[in-house]
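Complex 384.
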Amino acid sequence: MRNQSIFLLGSTGSIGTQTLDVVRNNPEKLTVFGVTGNKNWELLAKQVNEFKPKVAVLADKASEKQFRNAVRHEQTQLYFGHEYIAALVAEPEIDVVLNSLVGFSGFIPTCKALESGKRVALANKESLVVGGELIKEHLGLAEIKVFPVDSEHSAILQCLVGEPLKSIEKLIITASGGPFRDYSLEGLEQVTVEKALKHPNWSMGAKITIDSATMMNKGFEVIEACWLFDLPLESVEAVIHPQSIIHSMVVFEDGSAKAQLGIPDMRLPIQYALSYPDRWPGDVPRISWSEAHTWTFRPVDTQLYACYGLALQAYKDGGYAPAVLNASNEIAVARFLNKEIPYIAISKIVEKSLEQINETSTLSVDSIIEVDKYSREFAQTLTI
Ligand code: MG
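Predicted structure with magnesium ion bound:
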């Protein structure tokens, strides 16, 4: 494969910095066309100085001066404002857009990248949750254009190599269950921000860490799997696997099941999204087979994880429900992180927001933006 040029959206976040690790390890295969950051201008400037991309976008215009002063590589074109991210994804030099933006902000760049024929390595699962219906012509496995960066979907893609697609009976998506998997319902009332941010197995950004604790993240991932692998909701099931070693499984029509295993490390799914269908050497840790291991599984308790049930229901309802689900969840999580609301109010805000939907117009990018905006305002002012 020739050298691929990557436009890395969200380069200063957890997936972004790990993607740059993958680039560092594969300099003959990968180059960085562009990097984008939200507020962290210092890290973004360091990345520009090291990777010498063609473009860099800093969304936060207020830090323009500091950022310009910190950039040493003068050939990099600097842009200020989130709108430039979507404006640049169609640039002819780009081979693959790696979208690791957080939340709904990733939706328009995903649309624009697919419209301009780019491959998309997708870590921004909200793009699919909110807009799967609108971009479904670009999805499915017949000709892959969207490569999952999520560990579960990467596992499924790896299990499906060489398999006839019609032979899939079921996808089993594993979930760690987050830090509260052994809590009672009453115990959830005592959850603090500090406890919720301590994920037992993965090191990730704040928003997805909370989404993992509530299992909204797993609900999003089930929806993501339905779109990516073109399957009905009944064919996708989540199971709690506290050790996070098996990243997901596929059950085939003959009763055989395939799994993909590894020590949790996002650099593997990131690299696979870029190397597919090849594999490249990787320096991620290996499972030690000379030690004893116990790997366990248990069903998802939908009472303990109310957000998980709400996500599946929103997908079943369709229309604007997934957009409202995502918008209200983003606001509820932000309010929890700000210590404005207790942990258990997150699912209640989402539930109340879903009850308010009365939009029946045909889905379009503009109408989704409108519903997203309205749902945010509603979730922001809701008192629980
Ligand atoms: Mg995941």
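Residues 150-152, 221 surround magnesium ion (CB under 6 Å).
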